[in-house]
Write a structure and sequence with these properties.
single chain; 290 residues; mainly alpha; elongated
């Protein structure tokens, strides 16, 4: 076997190990909880060992029942959070497709100069940029690339760009650069922009009901607090690593669900909106120029 083959196999092995043991993005938030819970489990084990505390005969059954209820709540919580994340991804995929289709049809239909087409393309890509910033915070028009010196201050920047796009399409129709059928076609695609914006705003402004989150966290707290007192009777000090492992997975799943239920942030588990906006800009540049 050659040295190149050895190097390739070593790299492949390292990649496999990294994929198996890749760091958890939520690790920094999770670590303090793990440390505190480890201390709690140690205290429980010491108390039971020193004072010979005996578990109630119904302790194991109660812990098992709580685990079943907790499992049902976890399924609902994670499904709801992931559905929100996936819907956000589909909406941005739709925006990418609508932007490309609008650019392609504009190039095919509109008999306009290259600078005019390029200016229209900048409106399309600016809508994506403004929506990305709008979903993360209140965006100003001057924060969008190319509009730093603008004197306008629209309260809803994505709506401003959508309006500019539709006004330009209407102007082309008045100037006889497109016919009625082409107007309807371009307008139908352009209207999809605000459909995406409204759906994304709905996800962002409608979190999972507080009661569901509260009762799940109550169940997590009850399970993690009571279970060590039950299993320490059987596992003794081995209950510490076992319960810490349970805590890692239970709290880890809850923190991940909390992160992905709002998919438009800037965390490692959130959607890469900057990449999607960049893809739109590249497609527009290819179709309509700059």
């Amino acid at each position: 076997m050659s040295a190149e083959d050895d190097t390739s196999n070593s790299i492949t092995l390292k990649l496999r190990v990294w994929r198996l043991l890749m760091p958890l993005p939520m690790g920094r938030r999770l670590l303090p909880w793990i440390v505190e819970y480890t201390v709690y489990c140690i205290v429980v084990a010491l108390i039971v060992d020193r004072y010979s505390v005996e578990a109630q005969h119904w302790g194991a059954e109660t812990a098992a029942l709580n685990g079943v209820v907790l499992g049902v709540l976890f399924v609902f919580r994670n499904n709801a959070a992931y559905d929100r994340w996936w819907e956000g991804r589909k909406l941005w995929g739709q925006l990418v497709n609508d932007s490309r289709n609008l650019a392609l049809r504009t190039r095919s239909y509109v008999q306009a100069s290259e600078p005019e087409l390029a200016a229209f393309g900048r409106l399309i890509s600016s809508f994506a940029d403004s929506l990305r910033m709008h979903l993360r915070d209140t965006v100003k028009l001057q924060e969008v690339s190319g509009y730093e010196n603008s004197q306008e201050h629209p309260p809803h920047v994505p709506l401003y760009f959508s309006e500019q796009i539709q006004m330009q399409i209407a102007d082309w129709h008045r100037e006889k650069k497109i016919d009625g059928y082409q107007l309807i076609t371009l307008d139908t695609v352009a209207r999809g922009f605000m459909d995406v914006c409204g759906a994304c705003e709905r996800i962002r402004s409608t979190p999972l009901p507080l009661s569901y989150r509260a009762i799940l966290r109550h169940g997590i707290g009850l399970y993690l607090i009571t279970t060590p007192w039950v299993i320490v009777q059987e596992l003794e000090f081995w209950c510490i690593p076992v319960m810490v492992a349970f805590c890692y997975f239970i709290l880890g799943v809850e923190l991940i669900a909390e992160e992905v239920e709002d998919p438009f942030g800037e965390g490692p588990d959130d959607l890469d909106l900057a990449k999607y906006s960049q893809n739109i800009r590249k497609s527009i540049l290819q179709s309509l120029g700059d």
